[in-house]
Amino acid sequence: MTEPVYQQPNQPRRLVRTSNDKVIAGVCGGIARYANVDANLVRVAAVIGLLIGFGSLGLAYLIAWVLMPEE
Questions:
Q1: Would you place residue 55 in the very low, low, confident or very high pLDDT band (cuts 50, 70, 90)?
Q2: How confident is the model at residue 31 (pLDDT cuts 50, 70, 90)?
Q3: In this predicted structure, what is the pLDDT of residue 7?
Q4: Distances (CA, A) of 13 to 22, 31, 34, 36, 57
Q5: Strand partners of residue 70
Q6: 2-30 pLDDT, tens per residue?
Q7: Using an 8 Å Cβ cutoff, are 45 and 37 in contact?
Q8: What is the mean pLDDT of residues 64-71?
Q9: Cβ atoms < 10 Å from Cβ of 32
Q10: Is 64 exposed, middle or buried (0-12, 13-18, 19+ CB in 10 A)?
């Protein structure tokens, strides 16, 4: 008879900038990893949001660049 396998509780996910999947600062790569989606999809959405939001998303990107720790 085999023993049951006990799984450890899930570690909480951290929102961090990526160091290996970055174009400018790794913010979009970190968001993509956190949301478990493709980083290019997040980058395209960021550019579209930047154009539609008249630059307000650019300010949010800069704030995230400063506040998000790097892995």
A1: confident
A2: very high
A3: 54
A4: 19, 11, 7, 11, 24
A5: 17
A6: 555 555 667 788 888 888 888 889 999 99
A7: no
A8: 90
A9: 19
A10: middle
**Cβ(38)–Cβ(1) under 8 Å?**
no
Burial class (CB within 10 angstroms; exposed 0-12, middle 13-18, buried 19+) of 9: exposed
State the SS3 of the chain: CCCCCCCCCCCCCCCCECCCCCCCCCHHHHHHHHHCCCHHHHHHHHHHHHHHCCCHHHHHHHHHHHHCCEC
pLDDT for the residue 10: 75
Cα–Cα distance between 47 and 31 in angstroms, integer?
14
Tokens of 53: 């939001």
Structure tokens at 49: 């949001």
Q: How is residue 25 written in tokens?
A: 């600062």
